[in-house]
Specification:
Shape: globular
Strand order of the largest sheet: 1-2
Largest sheet: 2 strands, antiparallel
Number of strands: 2
Structural class: alpha+beta
Strand content: 15-25%
Distance between the termini: 13 Å
Helix content: 25-40%
């Protein structure tokens, strides 16, 4: 279960916003693609953007390589990640990279 340690309003984000702001690109580029996986988005004229299939290319030894990617979005996401990491590193449940590696007690 995901929970915030601060009691703030929980919001959601549309698939379109997730993709257009670069989160999908970076999730694919930094985590899924090196493992040979890729999450896509489909566009439906009535429902809008939806997450598509997870493409499985794990048999490729190099994983998935982007031909091009949006470096500006990558930099924005990296800055956001670093800012959150500064706070997360101080939490007892996160390691020196700001990644949760222990249960919250």
């Amino acid at each position: 279960m995901a929970l915030g340690l601060n009691q703030i309003e929980r919001k959601s984000m549309s698939v379109e916003e997730f993709r257009s702001h670069g989160y999908l690109q970076e999730m694919n580029r930094l985590f899924l693609n090196p493992l040979g996986l890729n999450l896509g988005v489909t566009v439906d004229s009535k429902r809008g953007e939806e997450f598509g299939l997870i493409r499985d290319m794990r048999d490729d030894t190099e994983g998935v390589i982007f031909k091009t990617f949006n470096r500006e979005k990558a930099e924005i996401i990296a800055e956001e990640y670093e800012a959150k990491g500064v706070v997360r590193k101080k939490l007892a449940c996160c390691n020196e990279m700001g990644v949760q590696d222990r249960d919250v007690s």
